Structures are given as structure tokens and as C-alpha cells.
Sequence to fold (472 residues):
Amino acid sequence: MLLPNYMEAKTRNKKIYQKEQYHLAKHLKNKYQGKTFYLKTYGCQMNEHDSENIKAILCEMGFKEVDEIEKADLILLNTCSIRENAHNKAFGILGRIKHLKQQRKDILVGLCGCMAQEEDVVKTIMEKYHHLINFVVGTHNLYRIPIILDKSIENRQQEIEVFSREGNIIEDMPISRNSKYKAYVNIIYGCDKFCTYCIVPYTRGKQHSRDKEDILKEVTELVKQGYQEVTLLGQNVNAYGKDLDKGYGLSELLEDVAKTNIPRIRFVTSHPWDFTDDMIKVISKYSNIMPSIHLPVQSGNDRILKLMGRRYTKEEYLTLFHKLKKAKINCAISTDIIVGFPGESEAEFLDTLSLVKECKFDNAFTFIFSPRKGTPAAKLYDDITLEEKEERLQRLNNLVNKYFLENNKKLIGKTVDVLVEGVSLKDSNLLFGYTDTNKLINFKGPKDLIGQIIPVQVMEAKTWSLDGEYHV
Ligand code: 5AD
Ligand code: SF4
Fold:
């Protein structure tokens, strides 16, 4: 039993990371042939990507994936801690699982992902869900799922293994990618920024970068397999390489990835503080680096930004924003915004609205502040009612939505490059894909276009999508 410990998770040291090759013990290979699993993923792209590894690991053990929870012998929840509602979703599904387990006692239930790194969550699992959850694995040791899962079956007891410190970097984990055309590639794990509201530096640990050779090898392999797009992933990709101390950072990496000739490159997420002029230069130089950048601002007020520990002012953000817009032609910029940070006044909230009016973001993810236990902001005095926060969120959403539509309307009549991803879920007569600026577009066309990048003319604009026409 290895439980999470926030004190340890908070520490940062100068550890040199070793690489380890993944391998599955011989006796576990295909041991569970004939058994099925259902994997539910919450949260960000990092979790989605982890789930691609988990799926492949389970398949190596002989499990087969099913898409209905009722049909599964193993139910695994890959969880997220970022806000209270992510927690509630995971705890909510446990009610349904409890019901299933009453009918079939042999169902195995596991929990992994960020919630597994939380002290309180694991305590609750041990006390309240002792009979429901069979095993818990943290974010740093996903590769140990086979051993822990097997141990919990063999020993018929709850197994919990959560490392509070990041371990070595595991290379060559098996992967079952969700798409044949778009791929996620990890470049950096963890985060050292410690924004005061954020749980991620505790759940994902110290920032540690993958070796450039491993990243480039993975991208080159994806190009060979016919992939059209890679998204370089990290909690803060702009810090790439800092821990390796080799003078090789994100700008150098982006340049080398661009030279592999993969048709499309994206990267998430960027902290404005680490955005250098060199990065901007490379982004503007290569046409296969997409004109779409996610640049979370969080607030437009300097006092709140300081309390959040963001280390930039509204002016500094705006300067960077305009520099990017100028350097990269037709660049779409999206953002994240939190309203109702403890003590945020109406005037301070209005500063955020004024920033939105200036930036006219192409997309924005907006949230009400959610106190996360263990973070500094959770201890701040907060006199704003939930009603007020909800009302602010509504006003913010009305404004950002207005600009999404305005920006989309500007594209009407233009022809844009689209990576076609498949048949629309809403209308089987339509195909869907994403523009270079990462906008969803639906249009009519033959199915053999799927997987290709093609020109589509924009005919109509909606708030969250475009309608287009494909001309042969
Ligand atoms: N409350 C609300 N939103 C949060 N985010 C991160 N932590 C919190 C929190 N405690 C938002 C930030 C971040 C995005 C991924 O989630 O806007 O950029
Ligand atoms: Fe959620 Fe953050 Fe963990 Fe992603 S890294 S799953 S957003 S808590």
C-alpha cells in the first residue's frame, strides 16, 4: 500500500531522470484472455493520451475493450481533479458501478489519473469504497497497472499504489491511438508553475522533459504511418527542455518537428510567461505549425493575476497576444478564463471583460473558480456568492460567444484547409473535420476524403462550427 502525500508531491529537486523501457512480465501476457474492460476518461488531453496507453496495456494482458459498462469485467476510471465537478462526475458513476457490482460480485473496479494523487480521495476510497474499488494507481506509475491489477485479483484485497514523486520516464509503452490521422505526443510531464488555484503541480509532479531524440523518433514514425497531425502535449509545453539544461527548448524542438514534414503541428498548453521571441519566430517561419495557439489568460486584472501567481500583467499578456497575431498570419488564439477567484470585485471582473473585448478570442474555456484542497487559493477568504459567480460566468460567456460567431463569420466565402476526420455524428450525410485554425467544419463529400487535408469553402458560420462545401 503506497498512499499519496501532498508534502512530498510539492517538493522540487534537481533530480536527473533516467529512462526505462516498458515491458510486461511474461506471466501477465494474455493472462486475462476472454475478459473485457470499459475505460472511462475524464479531463484533459494528457488524460486522453494516458488512456491510449492504458488501453494498449490492457489488450496486451488479453482484455478486450467494450463500450458498454454493463458488459465489462473490468471497469477503470481515469480521473481528473481540476475542478469539483470533475470529482463529482467520477464519484457519480460509482453509484452505477455499485449497482452493477451487487449483481456481479466478480467485476473488478480500478481508479487511476489525477484523483488517485489526492490524499482525501484515497482516504475516502479506503474508508467508504473498500468493497467497491479494487485498485488505485497514480499518474506516475500507469505502467504498473498490470502488476497492481493482478495483485488485487490474486490477493483478493484492495491495492493502492500511488507515488507522490514522479519516477523515471517510461519509453515505448504500447499505444492504441484513438485516431489514424491525429496523434498526441508527450514532450513534457508535470508542472513547476504552481499557480495558486491549480492542483496539477501536485497531481502530475515536477516538470520533466522527454529527450528530443525520443520525441523526434515518435513523430518520424507517425509520419511513416501516414499521420497528418501531431499535438505536442504538456501541462506547460513552453517550459520544454528547461530541466534538461542542454540549451534546447521548445523553439528548437518545434523547428525539428516541423522539419519532419508532418503536415500539421499543434502544441498545448502554453504559459504566457515562458513564451519567447524565438518560439514566435519559429511558429511564423513554418507553415506546418498551425495558426492556432492556446494561450490561457485566466484574468484581465493585475491584482487577481498576482494572487493567482501567474507572473504577468494584463499589459504583458496583451503585448504577447498582439505580437503573436502580427507574426503568424491569420492566427487564431484561444484561452482559459476563471471567474470568481476569491475576493474578485465587480470592477476586477470588468477588467477581464475589457481584455476579452480587445482580444476577441477564437475560442475560450470559461470556469468558475473551484477551491482545490492543498492549493494556496483554497485558503483565501472569499466573500463572493455562488450566485454572483454564476452571473459573471454568464456575462462572460455571452461576450466570448459573440466573438466566436463574429470570427467565424469572417471566414464565409473563404476556402480553408480541412483535415477530414470522419462522418458527422449528428448527420450521417455529412463529413466533419478541423480547419488549420482548429475550427470544426461540416460539409458534404465522399467518404474517401477521410484522413486527407482538403480545401473546403466556408458557406455558413455558427458560434461553435462552420458549414462548408467541397468542390471536386
Ligand atoms: N478552478 C477553476 N478553474 C481552474 N482551472 C485550473 N484550476 C482551476 C480551479 N481550481 C482552469 C484554468 C486552466 C484550465 C485547464 O482549468 O483555466 O487553464
Ligand atoms: Fe485534470 Fe489537470 Fe489532471 Fe488533466 S492534468 S486530468 S486537467 S487535473
About this structure: The chain has three domains: 6-161, 177-409, 415-469. The first helix runs from residue 6 to 10. The domain at 415-469 is CATH 2.40.50.140 (OB fold (Dihydrolipoamide Acetyltransferase, E2P)).
